From TrEMBL:
It comes from Brugia timori. One of its GO terms (molecular function) is dihydropyrimidinase activity. This is Amidohydro-rel domain-containing protein. One of its GO terms (cellular component) is cytosol. Belongs to the metallo-dependent hydrolases superfamily. Hydantoinase/dihydropyrimidinase family.
Length: 441
């Protein structure tokens, strides 16, 4: 049996019962992986390797577990069979009682961000150390910089510095004919197949999603009502709070709780009495995030465009996704949702899933194309101490897979095949890298 899978990680694990096979992904343009150069190869990212034969390993795909020998040559799996004859000069590795699974794909890094503590070299090293061989970095153009210029600038950096596979997702913050033309060039000339939409107006969102559909790419959106959140952030700061708690309070799970907070801190911030708040039925105060998820779902269906919902942080939003159970919505959930321990991260200390971990586990277990991410970028310590709130991610992309394995698999909440799906194969399907990158077969 022949195979051309690239990037695998060997991990000793305890196997759990299999899960049902995940559904096929929507057909979209294939994303382009930026090749590493000789410079980065000299640092340890590639080059010519001797043959490696792994004997008797337990192979874990997203839909099956079986025992086989694996022959790797020049960093690529060349053969997969129940028994492979040992090639001359090959390094032999005993895979007994060990599992061999596809390397992870991290779809949300910001190594190109000026605020990031990591850049492509250190970030990619961390990714590889944690079992991730492919990252998708976010391109945020500078003020007055075109999308194409931003892509070319960061592509050169990634090509010379990254030690692992790199692809890009480009942020769209405005909508006009020039942006439309640049998106077309990025898709057909540069291999971009996803765009992060940072626009609030429904009319523009509708047009962008329609255009994404025509380009055969998918959109990605953070479910935040930025107009309301900007107002709430201003009021929270006015109350004298500027640390990590401000992030939580400006993105309330229940609006009624936030209104009561403002009333007790400073009644002048609001113009209605506390009694009017307390008399409202609970269902009136829907979460802002859940409302945005529902809105994204409607626009996605109207335009027939797949949309990835990024950085979910509330059980209310998770419930909307579970009710929809649509392949048009692709949940991207940070692994910090599983961590209820204290840390300096805003999403660690204020993560609403920590109060109801079953919500995130339900998403990881039941939503067909759910993807586990590491969050956003890790900020430099001096920047995280500023009044603009704290960082909102785990320390590095290195921690994502190990944290999910401990919190999800070893605790019995998900099985190893589902682990492969949400850390690797689902991302490959969404970004049209499947099955080359993440499937043994």
């Amino acid at each position: 049996m022949k195979s051309s899978v690239e990037g695998v990680a060997a991990v000793a694990v305890t196997l759990a019962p299999p899960a049902s096979p995940p559904p096929a992904s929507a057909t979209i343009t294939t994303t382009t992986i930026i090749p590493v150069t000789e410079t980065s190869m000299d640092s340890g990212s590639g080059g010519t390797f001797g043959a490696i034969l792994i004997k008797g390993a337990q192979i874990i795909n997203d839909d099956s577990i079986y025992i086989a020998d694996v022959l790797i040559q020049d960093g690529i799996i060349r053969e997969l069979s129940s028994k492979i004859q040992e090639p001359h000069g090959a390094q032999i590795i005993d895979g007994t009682d060990k599992a061999l699974m596809p390397a992870g794909i991290e779809i949300y890094t910001e190594f190109s961000s000026l605020d990031s503590a990591d850049e492509f070299e250190t970030g990619s090293k961390a990714a590889l150390a944690g079992g991730t061989a492919t990252i998708i970095d976010v391109i945020q153009p500078k003020p007055q910089e075109t999308l194409l210029n931003a892509y070319d600038r960061l592509c050169k950096v990634a090509q010379s510095k990254s030690l692992c596979n790199v692809a890009f997702s480009v942020v769209i913050s405005e909508w006009n004919d020039m942006i439309r033309k640049e998106m077309n060039t990025l898709v057909h000339g540069k291999g971009i197949n996803s765009f992060i939409i940072n626009i609030q107006k429904d009319e523009q969102l509708f047009e962008i999603l329609e255009y994404c559909r025509s380009l055969r790419v998918h959109a990605r959106m953070i479910p935040e009502n930025k107009d309301i959140i900007a107002l709430l952030e201003k009021r929270v700061r006015a109350s004298g709070i500027s640390d990590t708690e401000c992030f939580h309070l400006s993105r309330p799970e229940a609006v009624s709780c936030l209104l009561l907070f403002f009333h007790h801190i400073n009644s002048s911030l609001l113009e209605f009495p506390e009694s009017d708040i307390e008399d409202q039925p609970n269902n009136v105060f829907a979460t802002l995030e859940a409302d945005m998820v529902n809105r994204i779902s409607v626009l996605s269906k109207l335009t027939n465009c797949p949309v990835a919902v990024m950085s979910l942080s509330s059980p209310g939003a998770a419930e909307v996704l579970l009710q929809q159970r649509s392949n048009m919505l692709i949940p991207e959930i940070p692994v910090t949702a599983l961590d209820d321990e204290e840390s300096n991260s805003a999403l660690h200390t204020s993560w609403r899933y920590a109060k109801s971990p079953s919500a995130v586990i339900s998403c990881f277990s039941n939503l067909p194309l759910c993807i586990c991410t590491s969050g956003r970028c890790k900020m430099r310590k001096k920047d995280s101490a500023m009044e603009n709130f704290a960082q909102n991610a785990i320390s590095a992309v290195e921690e994502r897979m190990s944290m999910l394995w401990v919190k999800g698999v070893l605790s019995g909440l998900i099985d190893p095949m589902r682990f492969v799906a949400i850390t690797s194969s689902n991302a490959a399907k969404v970004f049209n890298l499947y099955p080359k990158k993440v499937f043994f077969g």
